[in-house]
Specification:
- Helix content is 13%, strand content 23%.
- The protein has 439 residues and is α+β, with helices and mostly antiparallel strands.
- Strands 3, 6, 7, 8, 9, 10 and 11 form a 7-stranded mixed sheet that branches.
- The chain starts with 22 loop residues before the first helix and ends with a strand.
């Protein structure tokens, strides 16, 4: 998908358990060197810029579409997040501070006032007041749901669209003359032989889509310059028509999805795509690939040249990197493909999902690895969210590849260093490219 062809899932990145989370906080090697400030951007603004949300969109129920009420995201931060407890509080708070004293004083006054009020009421309570016993309807009425709940998934319905075409190509969708019965349908048209999609699995899909009510096409990943949609399944990162539909299905499968408004854009519809508030949508989804959060690539290894650090594969543990004795620090980026993947080449601007191990060129000491965390890392290539050596070294590499990058300090953390990375250090990264697409 390109900027001109928005994805059907909406903007935002999952932040549930198992997700990649804040790219600034989890960046390989830590935050980029330099003086930067945190920029807090509400997801509503991001979604509107991406063309998948409207000003004033209502909050959603769990499983619905993303809304303005979601927590803001932090970009370009040079400060790591403070360690917090499971409850979300600092483990060792330094003190309550002035604000805490003020709030404590206010709370004490309120509590004393409440006690006096209760005493007066009880003292005069001998005279019954029928009206006082009546609850206030305005305060006791249950809250009105902000969005319709997503209906349960079915595998059939009274009337379904007719689908023709093969997996991997744009589908032909024939809309029935009858209206939809409102069911949320996920039907397997052809089953693949790949791994099954589970919650939190990184999944990439191609799709064809149509509005049942109007018969109009919705932008497809198969359109010109379209890209597969990549996301973590079951994390509410996209509309339920994609996010929930793929769970339990195998890679290589083609699915028919009929999504009522509650499983798509909710009661607000999608005005900029001419999708009405009551329109049912039709998707034909091709599941291209799926990867567990701790997945690694496999294949025939081509050993690196003699002047490259040698790499020992440790499966799902950080790779062992042995430096070249007496080697001088390079002044330019050097790359070597250890395993050649058979997927498409990574393009600038695409979101990639990778596993990595980073070590110092001088002594092979590992300073960071996604494999130690059991979580793949994702970022847009060429977006400046990682060091320049990554942005430059991964463009053009194919999905499914394992690449060794030798990165001079000028394309890494420079003269300032970062954490366990000393100033002026040359770095070695072993990177597995699990998948790529529009995110």
């Amino acid at each position: 998908m390109t900027e001109k062809t928005p994805s059907p899932g909406g903007a935002g990145t999952a932040a549930n358990d198992g997700s990649a989370g804040d790219p600034a906080a989890s960046r390989p090697g830590g935050q980029l060197a330099g003086d930067r400030e945190s920029i807090v951007v509400p997801p509503a603004i991001l979604a509107q810029q991406a063309g998948w949300a409207q000003p004033g969109d209502a909050p959603r129920a769990k499983g619905g579409t993303k809304t303005d009420e979601d927590a803001p995201q932090i970009f370009a931060s040079n400060v790591r997040k403070t360690d917090t407890s499971e409850a979300g509080y600092d483990e060792n708070p330094p003190g309550v501070g002035k604000l805490g004293v003020i709030l404590g004083t206010v709370l004490a006054v309120l509590l004393v006032g409440s006690g006096i009020t209760l005493y007066v009421v009880n003292k005069d309570g001998s005279k019954s007041d029928a009206s006082a016993a009546k609850p206030d309807a305005a305060t006791t009425a249950p809250p009105t749901p902000s969005a319709e709940p997503v209906p349960p998934i079915k595998d059939s319905a009274k009337v379904l669209p007719t689908i023709t075409g093969d997996f991997g190509k744009k589908a032909d969708i024939q809309v029935p003359g009858e209206t939809s019965d409102g069911s949320f349908v996920v039907k397997v048209l052809s089953e693949g032989t790949g791994p099954k999609v589970d919650k939190n699995f990184w999944t990439s899909v191609d799709y064809t889509a149509k509005d049942w009510n109007t018969g109009k096409d919705i932008p497809s990943s198969y359109d010109n310059n379209g890209k597969p949609q990549i996301f973590q399944a079951g994390t509410d990162a996209l509309i339920p028509a994609l996010d929930q539909a793929v769970i339990g299905k195998k890679a290589g499968s083609r699915l028919l999805v009929v999504a009522p408004p509650a499983a798509a854009f909710g009661s607000q519809g999608k005005a900029d795509m001419s999708i009405g508030a009551k329109d049912d949508l039709i998707f034909v989804i091709d599941i291209r690939n799926t990867s567990a959060p701790d997945a690694v690539v496999s294949g025939t290894v081509t050993p690196p040249p003699a002047d490259f650090p040698q790499v020992k594969d440790n499966g799902k543990k950080p790779a062992e990197i042995t430096p070249v004795a007496g080697a001088k620090d390079p002044t330019e980026l050097k790359t070597h493909v250890l395993i050649k993947g058979t997927g498409p080449a990574v393009e600038k601007g695409e979101k990639v999902v990778v596993q990595y191990t980073g070590a110092l060129f001088k002594d092979g000491k590992v300073f960071d690895s996604s494999l130690s965390k059991g979580q793949a890392f994702s970022f847009p290539v060429g977006g400046g969210q990682v060091i320049q050596g990554w942005d430059q070294g991964l463009v053009g590499q194919t999905v499914g590849s394992r690449v060794e990058l030798v990165i001079p300090a000028s394309l890494g953390y420079g003269d300032k260093g970062q954490g366990d990375i000393p100033p002026g250090a040359t770095l070695v990264f072993v990177v597995d490219i699990l998948d790529a697409g529009q995110g």
